[in-house]
Amino acid sequence: MIGTMKLAKIGLRPAWPLWLSGIAAGLALFLAAIPLALVINRISAALPGQQEKAIIAIGVIFVLVLATPLAVYLLAARRSADPARIGLIVLATTGVLLVASYLYQVSFWVFYPGDFLIWSETEFVSDILKFRIGYPLYTDQLNNESFIYPPGAPLATYFISTILGNATSITFFRVVQLGYTLGAAAFAFLSFRTLMQLRYKDEDSPPSMPLSFLWLPMLFLVASNSLTNPFAHNLHNDAFGQLLAAAGYFVLVRYAATRDWRLLVFMALIPAAGFMVKQIVAIWAPLFVIYLGLFDRPRSIPRTLAVAIGGFGGIALAVGVGLLIWGGDFQYWIFQAAGNHPVSPVRSFQHVLDTWPYWSVGLIGGFILLRGRFSAQVFGLWAIWLVLFLGEAYTSGIGWMLNHLGPGSLIAGIWLAAGLTRLWNDEMPAMLGKLAPQRWLGYGIALAVVLLLLNGLGMFHLPIRPVSDDSIRYFNEVEAEFRGLPVDRVLLDSGSWYYLDNNTVMKDRVTSIGDRGYGQTGDFSGIIQRLEGKHYDKIMVRNLHLPKFWYESDTWAEPAGIKDAMLANYDEVKVIKGVEDVDRYLLGDVSVLVPKP
Q: Are residues 227 and 270 part of one domain?
């Protein structure tokens, strides 16, 4: 472990066997959560409709799992039992329990057959469909069939799924997103390991905390936290974007520790790769340049210029390739449609307040790590996280959700891990002294504070089923409306699984229209003409009679006339009842419309 490494003697040359063993140990602990998640599932299935009894039974299992390693350690250590080590055992076991709870709860969404759990899933699957059949990913806006994000995430998901024999599986696509999330946690873990080496590079004995058994599962929980990373399992560009952001931060931390010039190549490539996944990930180009220009020691102008030219040039090249393949349609969807969403500074500030736990742990963790021995490189890494987080907070003002702050939250988790490691191993022993009662009380209070903090960070997921079998009834009833009609003559507002199975690219999707209606950048004459011409034999739309109907929301500055055209030319003949036990827009009532006689 890191505590046995004599860093003053070996420097900071890569210790890959140690790194790999750390990842392997952490992954083993993560995998141990899977059978526990299956046990949770078995208990819940045995007590249908008795949620409280199920939770009590699961709680008993959790207590037994938590008590077992503690009992083994106490029996082995007896009088020499160390409260610091006991606290670490509790935290490590808690990490396994929390991962198991998360995997159980999220499994119901991962294995749901319909791709309409959030607004992005439809277009994510549609991009995969287009690529499979050779259809342009970006077309004229009048078709309302393209997405405002670059195609990197869906195409990478498709390639991985194809290699693994699941080229058209919606559920497997979501499993891949969880794989991205675990990968992001692994990069965050490696960043933490390297950051600790950098902080203690002149000392023979850095903290000897059993890092592998604690921080990889915990960082996975940060990467999938319910506050800023709620879409880690959904078909969205967030998971892959977070993976690239975590990889970028690892490259930066590793460079700060080694100044290995080969890492500059990755600094030049990551911004362009990030742009092709999600536009905001291109922010790593200026972040790398800021670090090299202000905090690199010794400072190198040639290296700074090389990364600036490579990073910004790579982004320009990616844009050029997009324009070459898709022309002005690429420019419209990626820049005009995506960029015209107004940013509300008030909403951005509110999002900072809403995510205060991650600001707090990042700021405090950095302070703890820097206190007593200031390092320009370590301070620079901390400052880069802060600039990234501020940028994410500002861009989050375009909407009401907090997922823009996901990568910054994960990096804040790195600083939490680093700060807590130093506090637990350096600061608290000196502060508590050698008196046994004082040490037990001090570490007991510290453990309670950390466990409460985990909940504030959105890492606790109750082991309860989030949706009942009524969601399957809902899916089946929607799918049944396609039968007996040409697929391209049935418009479903959101959801592309049926079109994927039939190799049909569908126009007039609600996500494509809703994004542009809110930003007032769309020309919707195409859908209005198709509605007036009764092009569709059947239309299925959710929440037709609500003010925030996505085809014509009352939040738009100017109405588009889509709803009026729909009601003027189509009759509502039935309503598919929404899922009873969950309050989600895309699981709400579905109005079935047919052309007026």
A: yes
**What distance in Å separates the CA atoms of residue 504 and residue 490, rounded to the nearest whole number?**
11
Between CA 516 and CA 146 the distance in angstroms is 11
Query: Between the CA of residue 437 and those of 76, 130, 166, what are the distances in Å?
Result: 21, 66, 58
All residues at 6 or more sequence positions from 331 whose CB lies less than 8 Å from its CB, including other chains: 322, 323
The CA–CA distances, whole Å, from 283 to 30, 43, 390 equal: 31, 46, 12
The reported pLDDT for the residue numbered 331 is 95
Give DSSP secondary structure letters for 196-230: HHHHTTT-S------GGGTHHHHHHHHHT-TTT-T
Domain boundary among 411, 429, 456: 456
- Residues 566, 528: Cα–Cα separation, whole Å: 8
Count Cβ atoms below 10 Å from residue 384 Cβ, excluding itself: 23
Two structure tokens written together for 337: 């449609």
Which among 406, 428, 456 is the end of a domain? 456
Cα distance between the two ends of the chain: 76
- With a cut of 50, list the residues of the chain below it in pLDDT: 1-15, 204-205, 208-209
**Measured distance CA(133)–CA(509) in Å, rounded:** 19
Residues in contact with 107: Cβ distance below 8 Å, sequence separation at least 6, in sequence order: 37, 41
Enumerate residues 6+ apart whose C-beta is below 8 A from 304: 289, 292, 293, 296
Residue 527 structural domain: 470-595
For the chain, helix, strand, coil in percent to 5 are: 65, 5, 30
How far is residue 42's CA from residue 57's CA, in Å, rounded to a whole number?
11
Residue 542, beta-bridge partner list: 590
Please give the model's pTM, rounded to 2 decimal places: 0.92
Q: Are residues 492 and 365 in the same domain?
A: no
pLDDT digits (tens, 9 = 90+) for 258-298: 999 999 999 999 999 999 999 999 999 999 999 999 999 99
In terms of residues, how long is the chain?
597
> What are residue 492's DSSP bridge partners?
540
- Considering the domain boundaries, does residue 123 fall inside one? no
Return the pLDDT at 202: 60
Same domain, 352 and 282: yes
Q: How many domains does the chain have?
A: 2
CA quadruple 418, 422, 424, 425: dihedral, nearest 10: 130
Structure tokens belonging to residue 378: 């370590």
**Same domain? 451 vs 526:** no
Flag whether 119 is in a domain: no
